[in-house]
Amino acid sequence: MEKDLFLTLLSLHLVEGDMPKDEVDKRVRYFDSHLSSLSEEECAKKIEELGGDKKLAEKLLKDYRRANAAKNSEDTSDDTTKTTAVPNASVKSNEADNTAKKENDINKLLEDDDSDVKPVSPEKNKAKNSTHKTSPQKKNTGAKSSKNAKAKKEITPFTVGLIILSPVILFFLLLISALLASLFVAVAALIALSTALLVLITAAGTAFALVAMIYGVTQLGQSTPAGIFEIGIGIVAGGITMLVGILLYNFVVRLAPFLFKKLVVLVKFVFAQLKRLYEYAKGAFNKI
């Protein structure tokens, strides 16, 4: 695999794994600088040692997620220690303040005969109700905005180009499929024709050879040269029939299955190249 294609596919897999762009660029620059100093053969060998773009991307994503998880656990532990330390330090002061407030309230109640409790105004109640009503609306608008952001992320330049070029891509896919199907049909028809010729030539040649030899034997009593000639024709016809039958048999039994296997390999190769072209085009469009 070439270096540029390897780096493009690696960055694509890392982006699909939700790795931030700056982290992706950092890793791609590292491997670019590492592979640039190697020759083409050494670069291809090094890529094979790394396990290819997919395996390397999976390994890098696992390391990145493990590091993030460790960092988040450290932050949460620091926050819990801070939150537990502050209340423990201020428990005594809060208790003292509460006891003082209770004593002052008792003294005020003893001094005043009338209660100074003020009723809550209806305007304040309306304000509270309005705040309670608006909070779900804020949540709904936040959810809608997040959905819109996800939808924008899903619409990439690659998807737009794929939609625009879909008629041309569909035409070429149908053309390639038709060519491969015609090759399969041609090989199958060749096998069927060869089998039919094998049966026909073997049966006709054997029958002709037997008839000629029997006729020659019957002519030996009347005309010896004519009988020998007829027997010779039968022997030659039998030899030709045997030779042609052997050739057709070898073609049907050995060469035709070999051609069929090679055709299957060709189909797999074509679809693998189409898949690589798809991934390369996707990475190139997403870089735009």
Account of the 3D structure:
This protein is an all-alpha fold and about 290 residues long. It folds into 2 domains: about 5-115, no CATH class; about 160-285. Helix content is about 90%, strand content about 0%. It is built from 8 helices and no strands. The chain has helices at about 5-15, 20-35, 40-50, 50-110, 120-155, 155-165, 165-220, 225-285. Helix 3 packs across helix 4 (about 50-110). The radius of gyration is 44 Å and the shape is rod-shaped.
Tags for this model:
single chain; 288 residues; mainly alpha; 90% helix; rod-shaped
Question: SSE layout and pairings?
Answer:
Blueprint: H1 3-16, H2 21-36, H3 40-50, H4 52-111, H5 122-154, H6 157-164, H7 166-219, H8 224-286
Helix pairs in contact: 1-2, 1-4, 1-8, 3-4, 7-8
Give the CA-based shape: rod-shaped
SS content category = mainly alpha
Share in β-strands:
under 5%
Low-confidence stretches: 84-91, 112-139
Quick recap of the structure?
The protein has 288 residues and is mainly α. The chain has helices at 3-16, 21-36, 40-50, 52-111, 122-154, 157-164, 166-219, 224-286.
